[in-house]
From TrEMBL:
Record flagged with keyword Cell membrane: no
Entry protein name: LysR family hydrogen peroxide-inducible transcriptional activator
Keyword rRNA processing carried by entry: no
Stored Pfam families: HTH_1, LysR_substrate
Annotated source species: Sphingomonas jejuensis
């Protein structure tokens, strides 16, 4: 009796449909037409003799078995990726494709500084970047959509290996006319909870700022939420309140062209730790360790 084995392409189509919940968007993610993706999934259902997806005009709904099959397919595809990684790791270090997730409070400030260095040190590396908030980036790592993530710690990212790059101190930013400290650091009790501006949920910097200030009322009293650090700076510049920024953003010039100033936050945990994380037991660990050395600041490379 012959047994039908699904093709990897059919499993990719099924997982993409599960991820996106829409045939058109799943097809775009797979770089095929919607009819090709739909036909591939129908062929899979026909050959295994079960319905995996219930189709209506407005809704794509997976059957209970379809959900189980798509979860298993996701694990199979991840194993295939790791097999490919294992072969690649046996060749030249840091060569070929590598998919790295980066959170938005790091990407625009660190990458312009380190990418030229990476291109110089590892010319055969094809680095694909995916910018996502911390929660989404860690989810992408766990399901194999990215190979590693440039993250700010502490943050619970699952069962991962971690390599520290450097510390990133936190600063308080406020309009020059509201300067509470003159020239020195700002203590948490100088922050007005009624005018404190924070990032939306999903950004780990929000939790880092609240933990450093150790004032629970700041979360409840936050006046507004911003979608990015640049948005928060514009809000501060327009007199809407104060916020917390990482040093790397200040050093990269995020305050240029504004009447906003930033002073160090004087608190026990007023920093975040920038790190590279990857799945445990990844066959590309050697590549990630080399990547860490290239991403580290020069004065951190012996640490």
């Amino acid at each position: 009796m012959s047994t039908y084995h699904p093709t990897l392409k059919q499993l990719q189509y099924l997982v993409a449909l599960s991820d996106h919940g829409h045939f058109g968007r799943a097809a775009e993610a797979c770089f095929v037409s919607q009819s090709t993706l739909s036909a591939g999934i129908r062929e899979l259902e026909t050959l295994i003799g079960v319905t995996l997806v219930e189709r209506t005009r407005r809704v794509v709904r997976f059957t209970r078995l379809g959900e189980a099959v798509s979860d298993k397919a996701r694990r199979v595809l991840r194993e295939v990726d790791e097999l490919t990684d294992m072969v690649r790791a046996s060749g030249k270090p840091l060569s070929g494709e590598l998919r790295m997730g980066v959170i938005p409070t790091i990407a625009p400030f660190l990458l312009p500084r380190v990418l030229p260095r990476l291109r110089r040190d590892w010319p055969e590396l094809k680095l694909f970047l995916r910018e996502e908030p911390s929660a989404a980036a860690c989810e992408s790592l766990q399901r194999g959509a990215v190979d590693c993530v440039l993250l700010a710690l502490p943050y619970a990212c699952g069962d991962v290996e971690t390599a520290r790059l450097f510390d990133d101190p936190l600063f308080v930013a406020f309009a020059r006319s509201d300067d509470p400290a003159g020239t020195g650091p700002v203590t948490p009790d100088a922050i007005d909870e009624g005018q404190f501006l924070m990032l939306e949920d999903g950004h780990c910097l929000k939790d880092h700022a609240l933990a450093a200030c150790n004032r629970p009322e700041l979360r409840a009293g936050a006046a507004m939420l911003g979608t990015s650090l640049h948005t928060l700076v514009q809000m501060v510049d327009n007199g809407l309140g104060s916020t917390v920024l990482p040093e790397m953003a200040v050093a990269a010039g995020i305050l240029e062209g504004t009447d906003v100033i930033a002073r160090p936050l004087d608190a026990g945990r007023a920093r975040r730790e920038i790190a590279l994380v990857w799945r445990k037991a990844s066959p590309r660990e050697r590549d990630f360790r080399l990547l860490v050395e290239s991403l580290r600041e020069p004065d951190e490379r012996t640490g």
